[in-house]
Design brief:
Layout (H helix, E strand, L loop, with lengths): L1 E6 L3 H13 L5 E7 L3 E3 L14 H4 E3 L8 E5 L2 E5 L4 E4 L4 E3 L2 E4 L3 E3 L16 E2 L4 H13 L3 E7 L9 H15 L6 E6 L9 H13 L3 E3 L4 E5 L4 E4 L4 E3 L2 E5 L2 E3 L1 H5 L24 E3 L12 H19 L12 E8 L2 E7 L8 E5 L3 E5 L4 H18 L21
Parallel strand pairs: 1-2, 1-9, 2-5, 9-20, 11-18, 12-13, 12-18, 13-14
Antiparallel strand pairs: 3-4, 6-7, 7-8, 10-19, 15-16, 16-17, 21-22, 23-24
Length: about 400
Amino acid sequence: MKHLVILGAGTAGTMMANHLNHHLKKPEWQISIVDEREEHHYQPGYLFLPFDIYTPEDIVKHIEEFVPKGVCLVKGQINKVLPKENKVKMADGNELNYDVLIVATGAKIAPEEIEGMKGGEWQKSVFDFYTFEGALALRNKLRDWEGGNLVVHITEMPIKCPVAPLEFAFLADSYFKHKHMRDKVEITYVTPLSGAFTKPKATEALEHLLHEKHINIESDFAIEHVDNETKEIVDYGGKAIPFDILVTVPTNKGDEVMARSGMGDDLNYVPTHKATLQSKEYANVFVLGDASNIPASKAGSVAHFEAEILTENILRFVKGEPLKEEFDGHANCFIETGNGKALLIDFNYTHEPVEGTFPFAGVGPLRLLKESRMNHLGKLAFRWIYWNVLLKGTHIPFVSATMSEAGKKYN
């Protein structure tokens, strides 16, 4: 019997378990998925939790619900991978041998990387919303907050879901308007980038929305430390921005397991071929989702598209066939803009977000790079699709893993 091991039962790992369970022959192959957690979190839901749009019950379910029958769920902490020996060592001393390894260990916030970020004001006036605990603490703070300077801040790129901080700023604007206290809140968006987003066309549209909603933007801000006494973030040039609430996206890093295994880069991301999703160092190791260092967005849609392409490549690998260099960095992201509207962007390694329609040319029903109520409904519907379609490895009709240029307006 041959053994395929998946590290991580989050979005990417669970999708791969479901995809491969349909295709790898039994009993020739045994699939195991390893995770120490009991719960599976719908991470896009963290954005909505602080604003009481979602409840904890909306975004947390048991891992077992989504691991398919026939796949062995190994619960426990991973100590390290021994890639030259094709082994995974568990913290309890047990070992898992593998013929093929899939790394889907994700990314985590590392607030300790910035001096003072995880200091005395952590989860008092300094919050993240990239963890369940952080989003919940921020919800409790915002419920009773009477106003002041709200600073939404990105430490450095890359981060999971690059548009989420912008969405937070837009939703905060809407949230305080509905509480009839927008005039008591100054919102400032602080980014290390030279503009609101990583792609020029989208940056233009998003900065227009920031100005329209009277949200200040501070760009090219490279944070050096958080001053917990004066409640300021300070950059390397000495510029200080005061806050009453700091909503920060700390440095994002890959899992420490990759560091212990000697498989990660400086941020613990695994060097990966961007078109095949095969490890650059080990032929029988594949990487997807937030764990890789490919220059694609670290977003759930990317993991979904990767999983469809990686499934075929793993089937090719086990048959000794050449891998397809097919993944094009495709990302498809709804951007909540508040007041019941959202944008939709669709892009890849070589094409930036542009205007048009999706998924059907000229028909839509979703509009690209334009605010609409339909896009907002699409964003909310995605939670049902996530739990009932994506995690189960079911293809979404009319949405291809690689980006289609149909319906897009290129100048």
